[in-house]
Amino acid sequence: MAIHQHLLDLVELCVRKEIRQAVISPGSRSAPLTLALARHPQVTTRVVADERSAGFIALGIAQQIRKPVVVVCTSGSAVYNLAPAVAEAYFQEIPLLVLTADRPKEWTHQLDGQTIYQTEIFGKHVKQSFEWPADFVHPDARWFAERIANEAVDLARTEPRGPVHINLPLREPLYPSADETFAFGPVRVIEQLPAMPALPPETWHRLQDDWDSAERKLIAIGQGPHDPALLAVLKKMSEEWRTPIVGDVISNLPRNGEFITQLDVFLNLSDEQIREDLRPDLLITCGQSFISKQFKLFLRSHPPRQHWQVQPHTRLADPFQSLTRLIPHDPTAFFEKLFSDVDYQRFVSNDDEADSDDGYQQTWQTLDRQATRMVSQFLRDETVFHEWAVVQRLLDQLPTDSQLHVANSMPVRYVNLSGLDENQLVEVFANRGTSGIDGCLSTAVGAALTTSKTVTALIGDVAFFYDRNALWNNLVPKNLRVIVLNNHGGNIFRIIDGPSRQPELDAYFETSQPLSAENTAKDAGMVYQKVTSYAELKAVLPDFFAPGERPRLLEIETDRRTNAEEFDRYKRLVKELNP
Asked: How does it associate, per the subunit comment (predicted)?
């Protein structure tokens, strides 16, 4: 029997519960767990030395497969380096099983190396934290370990999904002898049956009555993965019922002539009558966060009479300060049933014309189309080389049926202001759980390791250099395309009002830097290219996005003052926008 048979049982349990992906950071205290994962024939392991990057790579994998991914690290400060990824996974509801090796508790604060207080180290940023037994002399210890292992795995997969932590104090010897064999199982699997929230018939009747009684209905979709079934029913509601459907680019709501995606442009309008005309009687939301600050401010100042949030769990969030009803239900199933029931009722009553106010949707769509034209005209101009215009040209050339991972700060805002057409079939991801710049590149690497599609990471220079250890491993896949917008500083601080007015802007906010991504790309074995003009950009993009045997990095150098001036010019044009 292996010296740490309980760890072999833990790994076998994970496999039995369909958790078969692991990201491991090397360490000695974690060696028994590392070997258990590495020697299991059904586990795919990846080794990433930097724990912070490892956590985000695991998040990127879990984001794709929509199942928990194991993250392993050794004891001590290594554990703390997982915290940014754990927090992002918690707020983005991404399932991770975080396994941290530890020294037995009696060695804490005894001048022993790599020993810190690891129990519940992630605080409220995990769904739950468990402590593994240090000793297995009594049979109850194995029973206890099996029980918490089953509970932890199931908890990570239960809505709302998220990270779960098991801290494992391990005694020496940590390494097996040469003649020791590993035997996985048998292990006790406690089956947790799936359950979906269901609404009783009388509740559905009440919801249908409230829907019918509301004249101006608005459906807003927050961040979420591409869901063809959801998009299909929303499109029918827009076309047949004339219900406006709005969302950000991270909601994966494409630009198709029906959906409304230019919220941040036209909601900047100061005309109070227009804003009042846009106020809904009934707002239905689903998904996670919204990028558009203007949309949030609009709904806070012009609240609907009713606001329903549809989600598969009961954790309450009220970002628009108007919530009146939390509906615990799968959003796609909810909208499909709502459409079917209301449509059938109208058929029975021969009332096919009972729809939302056509003029209400028309107001939203007219403003959206006008904003789209204005943005398109603004970005078409090539007299000035600036970031946002560059981003538009990049979006136009993205490969069909590919993925776009957008870093936080200005890149995600540029992409949201531009949008993507439905026929491009590009799925958008962004770390908007905490909206930090740490880990954006690592998440894209994790995704690229999991899909055969082209994965494009669009990232600013500060976020890139902050997370360049995402490329410090032997994993960087050939389908990864990295685009670095290098303006040599944190350009967002020059664009937003507060810091841009401060005399300390250059030194304390933008934090200017002279670096290039070239050496990082070459160290990672990536094909490197650099452009500084529209002509150079047009020349390299076809080859850049073409399939190849090596990953590629494109560095686009712009002037941050020019970027800020052009964005300011855009804002002046918005003020001139009239319905």
From this structure: Homodimer.
